[in-house]
Design goal:
The chain has 6 helices and no strands. The protein is mostly helical and 164 residues long.
């Protein structure tokens, strides 16, 4: 006999809270114009009522907002390091959405995924701050020319002459 969704005991109040890590002021100025980030953080901060339906709606909304994060990433943060962390975050949030909508909801799994999402949020914000710190390091004389020469996309293509 299938179990009723109402048999789910909602996660503890602490487990249902997502953390919103603080960015450094220089990182914050860059993400201020990133509308998808702002909407995602707003949704993350909304605490659902203690009904299962409210948790399901929040999981669905968070899943959509997390997926939207890949749109319009600021140029400074539009790097593989940030994109991969966003992809992991989206995966964890989609897993919460999946588990919260099952007939027999694994409460412990949902609670552990909430903790994982919090950890991934910290990882993402730390990576943003790291990019800002690295960009602040001045380049040495000739370093930009050297980096340009190392770029394989600029390499002179080998023209292969067919042998008669």
């Amino acid at each position: 006999m299938p179990r009723n969704k109402k048999s789910f005991s909602t996660p503890s109040a602490k487990a249902g809270i997502f953390s919103n890590p603080i960015l450094t002021p220089s990182s914050q100025t860059i993400v201020n114009n990133w509308n998808e980030w702002r909407l995602f953080l707003d949704e993350l901060g909304v605490k659902p009522k203690s009904t299962i339906g409210a948790f399901q709606k929040k999981a669905k909304a968070l899943s959509k907002r997390a997926t939207d994060l890949n749109a319009n990433i600021p140029l400074t943060f539009n790097k593989p390091e940030v994109k991969s962390r966003i992809a992991v975050l989206v995966t964890k949030i989609n897993a919460i959405n999946l588990f919260i909508n099952l007939d027999d909801i694994p409460a412990q799994k949902v609670v552990s995924l909430v903790a994982d999402v919090n950890e991934e949020m910290h990882s993402l914000t730390r990576q943003m701050d790291e990019i800002i710190r690295k960009n602040a390091i001045p380049k040495e004389e000739g370093e930009s020319d050297m980096l340009r020469m190392l770029d394989t996309a600029r390499a002179i293509p080998n023209k292969i002459v067919p042998q008669p």
